[in-house]
Amino acid sequence: MRREPLKSSVDIQPEWNMLDQIPFSTFSKLSFSVPEPEDLLLCGALEFYDRSFDRITPKNERRLERFKNRNFFKVTTTDDPVIRRLASEDKATVFATDTILSTLMCAPRSVYSWDIVVQRVGNKLFFDKRDGSQLDLLSVHETSQEPLPEAKDDINSSYSLGVEAAYINQNFSQQGWEKVAFEEPNPFASEGEEVASVAYRYRRWKLDNDMYLVARCEVQSVVEINNQRSFLTLNALNEFDSKYSGVDWRQKLETQRGAVLATELKNNANKMAKWTAQALLASADMMKLGYVSRVHPRDHFNHVILAVVGYKPREFASQINLNTSNMWGIVKSIVDLCMKLNEGKYVLVKDPAKPQVRIYEVPPDAFENDYVEEPLPEDEQVQPPTEDAEGAEPNAATNDVEEKELLSWRAGGTLNNNVMIMEYNNKKP
Prior knowledge:
The chain is an alpha+beta fold.
């Protein structure tokens, strides 16, 4: 079964001016070392990790609880009041979030298209995501050789699985007990609102003598060992149908966990590298990976946890050949490139067909609510106006009415993905 051509994550507009395209082959040679970051602020509140989760096995699986009333926030860089404050205090010249930085850091592992908005304001640089951006969802089987169904209303299409995976991750990250609060409350929550267990570490890295980068990094849980608090990141891999991976988790997780992990690393190389990069950015002491499966392959609303495994982020990064100097080398090269641009708005787009990223200059009102989009024809999008980079190869049982209604949602537009995931969460009792 041949993989269909992938589509661009954003419609390329006729008035956009393509400035450059960078093949991923140039990223592999990059290296840059950053000193240890400093914490500027810690906001939010975290639940303690429930250690009984470490004893879950396929034989004593546990239902994945739903946290329908908790609010999760996926706020972009320039909408973050803390980042605005830090920018006004000149704490740094470059601002981003861990989601955006990890997308850049792991770019060479990506197959699907993605985009990041870049804004040059005075001497400052802001990396943003669009409303309804695919960065709020999670890719599933992105690096697999086995293509997923094309029809968007199929529960196993890449889009449907992205919504399901984001929903699973949100709920998996909330399975703790008793909260500990930090210096400042959650900066995005209203008074009296029930919010997710999350802490935001606003951290600063020195990129050179007069350039600092500030990023908002997330951790989801905390443990206390010998009166010392350790931060954890919590992420869940999801099994949707073993015929796609060829590995049945309920049969293999206890006896061949290494083989299950190896298969996931092959099929989800980019997602797992991004999780690792985010854990490293947040200086999490441990990253917990949950193995979450559907109760039944055709039921994409109800899930069980089959196992939870913990890794030290640096050791796991080494295991998956994720080099921190290379990660920062990619970020530094993109920052240096963007710092040479004039003041204005730009968008970095991962080419849907080739291992490369393009940078476009876009109008100041691009991606705002009143911006009128007229997409270029598909064939014009795929062929850039300049010569292609040499040697760049193409990358390789629920209620029917409810299901159709759920899966008729589209990414982007006026419907934010975070709202969409919350609605998905509330769809089934």
